[in-house]
Amino acid sequence: DAPLVESANAPDAPERIDVAFRDVLDVKRAVAWVKANARATFAESVDMSVHLGVDPKRSDMIVRGAVSLPHGTGKTVRVGVFAEGEEAEEARRAGAIVVGGDELIKTIKDGGSNAINFDACVGTPGMMPKMKEIARILGPRGLMPNPKLGTVTADVGAAVKALLGGRVEFRAEKNAIVHAMVGKVTFEDEQLEENIAAVFKKILELRPKGKGAPNASKYLKKA
Protein backbone atom coordinates (compact mmCIF):
# COMPACT_ATOMS: atom_id res chain seq x y z
CA ASP A 1 0.00 0.00 0.00
CA ALA A 2 1.14 3.53 -0.72
CA PRO A 3 2.20 5.40 2.44
CA LEU A 4 -0.02 8.22 3.60
CA VAL A 5 0.93 11.86 3.17
CA GLU A 6 -0.44 14.87 4.98
CA SER A 7 -1.14 17.69 2.56
CA ALA A 8 -1.49 21.28 3.74
CA ASN A 9 -4.52 21.56 1.45
CA ALA A 10 -7.28 19.17 0.49
CA PRO A 11 -7.64 18.43 -3.25
CA ASP A 12 -10.75 20.60 -3.64
CA ALA A 13 -9.97 23.20 -0.99
CA PRO A 14 -9.78 26.92 -1.82
CA GLU A 15 -6.34 28.43 -2.23
CA ARG A 16 -6.50 30.22 1.14
CA ILE A 17 -7.37 27.88 4.00
CA ASP A 18 -7.08 27.55 7.75
CA VAL A 19 -3.47 26.48 8.37
CA ALA A 20 -4.66 24.08 11.06
CA PHE A 21 -6.54 22.03 8.46
CA ARG A 22 -4.98 18.79 7.29
CA ASP A 23 -6.20 16.21 4.81
CA VAL A 24 -4.51 12.81 4.66
CA LEU A 25 -3.77 11.64 1.13
CA ASP A 26 -1.91 8.68 -0.28
CA VAL A 27 1.19 9.47 -2.33
CA LYS A 28 -0.56 9.06 -5.68
CA ARG A 29 -3.29 11.59 -4.81
CA ALA A 30 -0.83 13.96 -3.15
CA VAL A 31 1.39 14.01 -6.24
CA ALA A 32 -1.61 14.63 -8.48
CA TRP A 33 -2.76 17.50 -6.25
CA VAL A 34 0.68 19.16 -6.14
CA LYS A 35 0.98 19.03 -9.93
CA ALA A 36 -2.58 20.24 -10.52
CA ASN A 37 -2.02 23.25 -8.26
CA ALA A 38 1.28 24.40 -9.75
CA ARG A 39 0.74 28.05 -10.67
CA ALA A 40 4.20 29.47 -11.35
CA THR A 41 5.45 30.29 -14.83
CA PHE A 42 8.53 28.14 -14.22
CA ALA A 43 8.89 24.44 -13.41
CA GLU A 44 8.41 24.39 -9.65
CA SER A 45 10.37 21.97 -7.50
CA VAL A 46 8.58 19.30 -5.49
CA ASP A 47 9.93 18.84 -1.97
CA MET A 48 9.30 16.04 0.48
CA SER A 49 9.37 16.52 4.26
CA VAL A 50 9.35 13.69 6.79
CA HIS A 51 8.91 14.28 10.50
CA LEU A 52 10.86 11.66 12.45
CA GLY A 53 10.21 10.51 15.97
CA VAL A 54 13.82 11.06 16.99
CA ASP A 55 15.85 13.55 19.01
CA PRO A 56 18.49 14.86 16.56
CA LYS A 57 20.40 16.40 19.47
CA ARG A 58 21.41 12.89 20.52
CA SER A 59 24.35 11.46 18.62
CA ASP A 60 22.72 8.02 18.42
CA MET A 61 19.63 9.45 16.72
CA ILE A 62 21.23 11.48 13.93
CA VAL A 63 19.64 10.67 10.59
CA ARG A 64 21.79 11.75 7.66
CA GLY A 65 22.32 10.19 4.28
CA ALA A 66 22.09 10.39 0.52
CA VAL A 67 20.16 8.60 -2.18
CA SER A 68 20.24 8.56 -5.97
CA LEU A 69 16.77 9.32 -7.30
CA PRO A 70 15.71 6.93 -10.07
CA HIS A 71 14.50 9.87 -12.18
CA GLY A 72 16.87 12.57 -10.97
CA THR A 73 15.87 15.95 -9.55
CA GLY A 74 15.36 17.85 -12.78
CA LYS A 75 17.92 20.33 -11.53
CA THR A 76 21.23 21.14 -13.21
CA VAL A 77 24.00 20.48 -10.69
CA ARG A 78 27.48 22.00 -10.85
CA VAL A 79 30.00 19.64 -9.27
CA GLY A 80 33.34 20.72 -7.84
CA VAL A 81 36.11 18.22 -7.09
CA PHE A 82 39.22 18.60 -4.96
CA ALA A 83 41.72 16.23 -6.52
CA GLU A 84 45.08 16.12 -8.25
CA GLY A 85 46.78 14.07 -10.94
CA GLU A 86 44.87 11.22 -12.54
CA GLU A 87 41.98 11.58 -10.12
CA ALA A 88 41.54 15.19 -11.26
CA GLU A 89 41.45 14.07 -14.89
CA GLU A 90 38.92 11.39 -14.01
CA ALA A 91 36.71 14.02 -12.38
CA ARG A 92 36.83 16.20 -15.49
CA ARG A 93 35.94 13.27 -17.73
CA ALA A 94 32.97 12.49 -15.49
CA GLY A 95 31.59 16.02 -15.88
CA ALA A 96 32.88 18.09 -12.94
CA ILE A 97 33.01 21.77 -13.88
CA VAL A 98 35.51 22.83 -11.19
CA VAL A 99 38.53 20.63 -10.45
CA GLY A 100 41.66 21.53 -8.54
CA GLY A 101 43.98 20.90 -5.65
CA ASP A 102 46.08 23.36 -3.68
CA GLU A 103 45.30 26.23 -6.05
CA LEU A 104 41.53 25.70 -5.70
CA ILE A 105 41.82 25.63 -1.92
CA LYS A 106 43.77 28.91 -2.01
CA THR A 107 41.21 30.50 -4.33
CA ILE A 108 38.35 29.69 -1.96
CA LYS A 109 40.37 30.60 1.13
CA ASP A 110 41.15 34.03 -0.34
CA GLY A 111 37.79 34.68 -1.99
CA GLY A 112 35.44 33.11 0.54
CA SER A 113 31.91 32.22 -0.52
CA ASN A 114 32.19 34.46 -3.58
CA ALA A 115 34.77 32.06 -4.99
CA ILE A 116 32.42 29.06 -4.80
CA ASN A 117 30.84 28.29 -8.16
CA PHE A 118 29.61 24.75 -7.59
CA ASP A 119 26.53 23.21 -5.94
CA ALA A 120 28.01 19.89 -4.79
CA CYS A 121 31.50 18.87 -3.80
CA VAL A 122 33.71 15.77 -3.84
CA GLY A 123 37.17 15.37 -2.33
CA THR A 124 39.77 12.62 -2.47
CA PRO A 125 41.06 11.22 0.85
CA GLY A 126 44.45 12.78 0.17
CA MET A 127 42.96 16.27 -0.18
CA MET A 128 40.88 16.22 2.99
CA PRO A 129 43.65 17.27 5.44
CA LYS A 130 44.37 20.29 3.25
CA MET A 131 40.68 21.16 2.96
CA LYS A 132 40.51 21.85 6.70
CA GLU A 133 41.64 25.37 5.77
CA ILE A 134 38.32 26.02 4.01
CA ALA A 135 36.02 23.87 6.15
CA ARG A 136 34.47 26.97 7.73
CA ILE A 137 33.59 28.26 4.28
CA LEU A 138 32.27 25.04 2.76
CA GLY A 139 30.68 23.54 5.88
CA PRO A 140 27.88 26.07 6.50
CA ARG A 141 26.84 25.70 2.86
CA GLY A 142 26.65 21.93 3.06
CA LEU A 143 29.58 21.57 0.66
CA MET A 144 32.23 19.95 2.84
CA PRO A 145 32.84 16.40 1.54
CA ASN A 146 31.78 13.67 3.95
CA PRO A 147 32.85 10.00 3.82
CA LYS A 148 29.46 8.91 5.20
CA LEU A 149 27.79 10.52 2.19
CA GLY A 150 30.21 9.06 -0.33
CA THR A 151 31.72 12.42 -1.25
CA VAL A 152 35.16 11.59 0.18
CA THR A 153 36.40 8.92 -2.18
CA ALA A 154 39.18 7.91 -4.52
CA ASP A 155 36.55 6.91 -7.08
CA VAL A 156 35.78 10.50 -7.98
CA GLY A 157 34.34 9.58 -11.37
CA ALA A 158 31.55 7.51 -9.85
CA ALA A 159 30.84 10.17 -7.22
CA VAL A 160 30.58 12.93 -9.83
CA LYS A 161 28.28 10.86 -12.03
CA ALA A 162 26.04 10.08 -9.05
CA LEU A 163 25.70 13.78 -8.20
CA LEU A 164 24.99 14.71 -11.80
CA GLY A 165 22.48 11.87 -12.06
CA GLY A 166 20.21 13.12 -9.29
CA ARG A 167 21.78 12.21 -5.97
CA VAL A 168 20.24 14.12 -3.06
CA GLU A 169 21.53 14.48 0.48
CA PHE A 170 19.35 14.89 3.55
CA ARG A 171 19.70 15.35 7.28
CA ALA A 172 17.23 15.57 10.14
CA GLU A 173 17.11 19.16 11.36
CA LYS A 174 16.82 20.20 15.01
CA ASN A 175 13.04 19.79 14.81
CA ALA A 176 13.54 16.20 13.57
CA ILE A 177 12.31 16.98 10.05
CA VAL A 178 14.08 15.71 6.94
CA HIS A 179 13.66 17.71 3.73
CA ALA A 180 14.52 16.44 0.26
CA MET A 181 13.84 17.59 -3.28
CA VAL A 182 12.15 14.81 -5.26
CA GLY A 183 11.73 16.38 -8.68
CA LYS A 184 9.78 19.00 -10.62
CA VAL A 185 6.06 19.47 -11.28
CA THR A 186 6.85 18.72 -14.93
CA PHE A 187 7.74 15.12 -14.05
CA GLU A 188 5.30 12.32 -14.78
CA ASP A 189 3.28 11.25 -11.73
CA GLU A 190 4.97 7.86 -11.67
CA GLN A 191 8.43 9.46 -11.72
CA LEU A 192 7.66 11.58 -8.66
CA GLU A 193 6.10 8.61 -6.87
CA GLU A 194 9.18 6.47 -7.49
CA ASN A 195 11.54 9.25 -6.37
CA ILE A 196 9.51 9.69 -3.17
CA ALA A 197 9.62 5.95 -2.53
CA ALA A 198 13.41 5.91 -2.97
CA VAL A 199 13.92 8.71 -0.42
CA PHE A 200 11.50 7.18 2.08
CA LYS A 201 13.13 3.76 1.78
CA LYS A 202 16.55 5.26 2.48
CA ILE A 203 15.24 7.15 5.51
CA LEU A 204 13.79 3.92 6.88
CA GLU A 205 17.16 2.22 6.43
CA LEU A 206 18.98 4.98 8.32
CA ARG A 207 16.43 5.53 11.07
CA PRO A 208 17.71 4.46 14.51
CA LYS A 209 16.12 1.09 15.16
CA GLY A 210 13.10 1.27 17.41
CA LYS A 211 13.19 5.07 17.52
CA GLY A 212 10.03 6.83 16.43
CA ALA A 213 7.90 6.43 13.34
CA PRO A 214 9.11 8.42 10.33
CA ASN A 215 5.85 7.93 8.46
CA ALA A 216 3.89 9.71 11.19
CA SER A 217 4.00 13.04 9.37
CA LYS A 218 5.03 13.25 5.74
CA TYR A 219 4.42 16.25 3.50
CA LEU A 220 4.70 17.15 -0.15
CA LYS A 221 4.96 20.73 -1.31
CA LYS A 222 5.84 22.67 -4.41
CA ALA A 223 8.46 25.40 -4.23
From TrEMBL:
Which Pfam families does the UniProt entry name for this protein? Ribosomal_L1
Q: What taxonomic classification does the UniProt entry list for its organism?
A: Eukaryota, Viridiplantae, Chlorophyta, Mamiellophyceae, Mamiellales
Its keywords, alphabetically, are: Ribonucleoprotein, Ribosomal protein, RNA-binding, rRNA-binding
* GO BP terms: translation
UniProt family annotation: Belongs to the universal ribosomal protein uL1 family.
Q: Which CDD domains match?
A: Ribosomal_L1
The cross-references to Gene3D superfamilies, in alphabetical order and at most eight, read:
3.30.190.20, 3.40.50.790
Q: Please provide, alphabetically and separated by semicolons, the GO molecular function terms listed in this UniProt record.
A: rRNA binding; structural constituent of ribosome
Q: What is its quaternary makeup?
A: Part of the 50S ribosomal subunit.
Report what the protein is called.
Large ribosomal subunit protein uL1c
CC terms in the record's Gene Ontology section: large ribosomal subunit
